[in-house]
Design brief:
The protein is an all-alpha fold. Helix content is 80%, strand content 0%. The chain has one domain. The chain starts with a helix and ends with a helix.
Amino acid sequence: MTDNLISALIFSGVGLLFILISLPLIKGIVPPNSFYGCRTRKTLSDENIWYKANRISGYDLLVTGAITLFTSFSMFAIAREMNADYFTLTLLVVMLASLTGAALHNLRAIKRM
């Protein structure tokens, strides 16, 4: 196995994990807690805000997972021969940028609630 294939598989797994983690949040089956979900003072203070914020957070995480998964497959298909360090760095930057965008979107949404 090449280093690029290993990186693509790892980041694909992370993308799938994000998607799996997002589904209970989207479905609204995660009650307020101190471990799993979007936990801020505001979301923990009101159950309605908790479920609304976590639904948004779940969709954001779902999109992040899909972007990470798609980028992993695309990079392996298109840039298979790329230097392994640049390959992995590109996947990492895309994933972190997606997570940052998701977090900022969620925080903005919570402010409006």
